[in-house]
Amino acid sequence: MSAPLSAGQDVRLEHVVKQFGGWTAVDDISLTIKGGEFFSLLGPSGCGKSTTLSMIGGFESPTSGAIYLAGEDVSRLPSYKRDVNTVFQSYALFPHLDIFENVAFGLRRKGVKKAEITERVNTMLKLVDLTGFAKRKPGQLSGGQQQRVALARALVNRPKLLLLDEPLGALDLKLRKQMQIELKRIQHEVGITFLFVTHDQEEAMAMSDRLAVMSKGRIEQVGTPAEVYDHPATEFVASFLGASNFIPGEVVGQSGDTAAIRLEDGATVNLPARALPPAAKMVKIGVRPEKFIILARNESAPPGWNAIEARTGVSVYLGVSRQYMMESASGRPLNVYTQNSGQLGELAPGETVRLAWHPDHTFAVNANETQPEGEQR
Questions:
Q1: Which residues pair with 271 in a beta bridge?
Q2: Which of 57, 238, 315, 359 could form a disulfide bond with 232, CB atoms 3.0-4.6 angstroms apart?
Q3: What are phi and psi for residue 62, nearest 5 degrees?
Q4: Cβ neighbourhood burial of 314 (10 Å; 0-12, 13-18, 19+)
């Protein structure tokens, strides 16, 4: 397509709360999604992401707070009065109708003229790469093809906002990865706002312009995938988006933009001062497993880098990389990933090595922070 189907719209939530009886599913969240953005709500089962999506779509009403679409307060408007369409995990196609009629269904209900229906449906089938499938029935298509039909049916109505509630959850891994690319391509071509709900971290990271990580009905952090992964605001975010190594320490100094942390084993490491939680004294520093480089015990780290001693344990071969389970000098478990480039031979268990990393690849959270115990539905 040479031009977007329609302009995107801003989505704004202000202090939104949703309660079911005595249970708070969404707990005072505020969020702004920019027009034309591919935005994801990410979190474990029960964190409130699907409930949030349902309120934006008009299937649930907030207990308190306000929801704005393109500047209009729609908090109490029914779903059919919002310029929004939704794609669910269950495709909900009509099995007795062919693909053309499935996609045309909403247009016919609106009384759109026959010639325009034909043009718009064929345009959508081309967009989702299903040209030539118009006369087939849903039962004759694969899961991925049925999902594309559901997308075409939603997009043919030219909504300004498309909500996607775990739409790839029923697909196998290979097809899910293919559909991630397709979804991103389609969103780019139509140019409207996509709000995507998923519990799959890799899925959200691969497709999103920005994402919000949720836990127990609250938003823990909002940012680009790179910002949230490299600079997690909390231990929960760091642990939910991939593996992290945490080592307790004490803030012992700050010079300009750099802060010094004395770790529990006595080593001192540096990190950007902006990475420290406000007024923090006792912290846990975090380093992603792939940020380490492994050095021999007596080998010097690159100038300005941090380094700690560690003892190697068992390793796991992962094809493109190898994962080592190690221990710090104080006995704390560490995960280390190395690229399978052939430059580093396999390390035997029990070897003493040094782990080095750049200070910019260090983040920090409050030492007394605890991860949530058992997420809500």
A1: 259
A2: 238
A3: -65, 145
A4: exposed
Report pLDDT digits (tens) over 39-53.
Answer: 999 999 999 999 999
Cβ atoms 210, 224 nearer than 8 A: yes
Where does 11-230 sit in CATH, by number?
3.40.50.300
Instruction: Assess whether pLDDT exceeds 60 at residue 371.
Output: no
- In this structure, what token pair is assigned to residue 249? 């320490």
Domain boundaries, the chain: 11-230, 243-366
pLDDT in tens, 300-320: 999 999 999 999 999 998 888
* Dihedral sign (CA 139, 141, 146, 149): negative
User: Cα dihedral angle (75, 90, 206, 25), rounded to 10 degrees?
Assistant: 40
- Decide whether 11-230 matches 243-366 in CATH topology: no
Query: Which SS3 state, helix, strand or coil, does residue 306 take?
Result: strand
Angle subtended at Cα 238 by Cα 336 and Cα 362, rounded to the nearest 5 degrees: 60
Q: Which two tokens stand for residue 364?
A: 């920090």
| Topology classification of domain 243-366 | OB fold (Dihydrolipoamide Acetyltransferase, E2P) (2.40.50)
